[in-house]
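INFO batch 0412 | record 1 of 1 | parsing
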Amino acid sequence: MQLISWNVNGLRAVEKKGFVDFVREYTPDILCLQETKAQEDQLSSQIKNIDGYTSYFSSAVKKGYSGTAIYTRHKPLRVIHNIGVEEIDNEGRVLAIELQDFFVVTTYVPNAQPELVRMDFRLKYEKEILKFLKKLEKEKPIILCGDLNVAHQEIDLTNPKANRGNPGFSDEEREAFTNLLNNGFTDTFRALHPEEIKYSWWSYRFSARAKNIGWRIDYFVVSESFMPKVIEADILNEIMGSDHCPVYLKIK
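INFO prediction complete | emitting tokens
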């Protein structure tokens, strides 16, 4: 099975940049999206009904903001649209499906914002999503993917010293990710590529992508017990259309 996760920074915007062609070319078994920025009734029939896929959406109450989606070739046993915390669920930040052998959870983790003004909400989110994951994990292993909005280690961004303490590279956010790993989860890309420098997000400013001045903030994280099934984890940094590129997981 092949899974792809992508922060599209607007599903309606990326539709105009060849999104459907991308899906048809790569044909993932499961495609998870973040920052869809749309309610389901704002999406075209073409984007909701890609041949061979069933699509599910979790939208923010606020229009044009946040949101997640899953396209799957495999009929889910269950679809979960929220984690039971109103202020988080209102932003459409979590969507999960249950398959025969595992759960797939896609998430768009809140940005702490300049001067870390939203850090309290971010840390509450980290606590609640971990609680949600551990509850699901009692039933079967988990594949968690999405824009986790944190570069975990210095290898995961171009300028770690200059960005120390900034959103996405604050001590609090990095420690929260470490805590996730310490609770029985594995960062698949770093586990399989311990020394490789590869990024998944680039600022639109200063020609950052052309210069490859980037951050690795998009992940596939799996239950430790699931790692033997992981064949490959990669970052598809040749794919354009968003300020993020897709990330990839192949499992057996």
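INFO post-check: Helices lie at 11-15, 19-26, 45-48, 86-89, 119-137, 160-163, 171-182, 188-192.
INFO record closed
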